[in-house]
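Lab notebook, bench 4. Still working through the backlog of constructs that have no structural model yet. Next entry is a single chain of 541 residues. Request: give me the structure tokens for it.
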Amino acid sequence: MARYLLPPVLFFCSYYGGAPLVIAVGVMALAAFLSQRSYAASVIAAFLFATAGHVTAARDILPMKETHEVDTADSEVIRLENGTVLRHDGTVIPRKGDEIAFFDTAVMQDRGLPFLSSFEKVPDRGLRKQLNDLIRTRSDSTVLLALATGKRLFSADERAAFLKTGTMHVVAISAFHIGLLFLLLHFVTRLLAFSPAFSPRGALLLSIAIKSLVLFWYLSLTGWGAPTVRAALFLFLFDLFLVTGVPAHPFQMFLWSLIATAMILPRSMGSWSFIMSALSVFTVIMVWRRLSRSRIVSIVSLTVLINFFLLPVSAELSGFLPLLAPLANLIVIPFAGLVVLLLIPVQILFPFLPSVASFLLIPAEVAAHILTEDMRFLSVLSDPTLVPLRQAGAFWFAIFYGLAAAVIFLRGWQRRVALCALFLSSLPFVTAPFSENGVERIYSLPGNAYCIREGRGVGRVVETQRYNFPAEYVQRKLDALPMSIERDVSRCGLMSVSSLHLRGSIPSAARRDLAKRPRFRNASWHTVPEPSPLPSSEDRF
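Model written out:
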């Protein structure tokens, strides 16, 4: 098994390790070839994979045009769907849901908040545009739009609900959705085997062709996101090996799908969504056969394991661990699966029979609204169950995932030792082991604000000045406060906030949400009179 897994692993090692690793493997491959060793083919394959990894890394550092979806925009700033905020000159103001393209060299990092010197709006043409227009003219459901086109135009409350319940993966097109599509295609193409018009080989080739075309169609509709492409490649490879009878380990196919995604989509290796999706699928592959045969027990167990393996990532992205996630996934996944299945005929028929597609959209919309209401209800219950996390740094990040890999691949007493070490390595993310003092700038409040560390995971949030922002911007900032301040204090290393000193009011709903959460439960709130507003500043965000 090792000789099949080592070459793909070397792709990732050389992606981050650079030319020295490629040279070392190349020397070994040359020596094995010249001495005609039995393992020469494996070493040569390892050299080719290592070279591909280094070439991919070299490509990813070149200036590159990026395309992103706009979350909000005004005459001063653009907030992208991935959370990045950029200043711009206001000449062109994109709308929510527009896609903009720009070279990474157009982002200037030396002027406070990154300044986007130039960008262009991507013309929204083609099938995805048609499907987007069809859904938005007939439904106001952002969940329906996300599951049909991959466009996640959620409000701050909706985004918070998915994060607080650990179900954001449900509305990010990835393995779950591609898996349902493949199950349906597998059932349809199996009917070809019973047709006398096709020989077994002909039915097999036709089945592969149909799945390839439908998969390309689906990726075109959902935006070719990194998690989507990775899931599609993995399941296509798995299905291809399955129907042809060629033996292959699932983990080997998983690595190949990651490599193909990294080579097809520039800079996908650094995408948080890609990393989260890859870790989740990796967990499923490695533990699925060891779980209970009960589907309910399996879903709950997988949710618990995935949330544990995503601890360091959750600390970076949300700042908390949602304990309600197993129950929420048990409720939400069936409805999400139903919506995806109901949308497949809509996605196939809308260019040819738009009236039929509109009719078929009705049951999908009903299921999507039920899913949304379930999420809102679960979101209200989730606040007291959000376990505070802290960002422990790159060292503990690497230690945690190194030990996680050891737990999966080792056997016997070595695995038990690695498992104990893994749990110990998770402690820096859920506790503050050392007393720390310091001050760090935070950006969740609409003004000049700081996080003050005052011991072992305890501290204060102090806003020294609230800027004179446009009312619309301030409202957007405060609507997102319960989520953004969690990330800020997680980065600062606070497990408990003792007090908040603010230069202005915040919405009562945001304050109530924060007061329910363990990190802010014992916090006292103080509003300090504002002496005089400052004009907008370049680093105010």
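Notes after review: The chain has 20 helices and 14 strands. Residues 537-541 have pLDDT under 50 and may be disordered. Flag for follow-up if needed.
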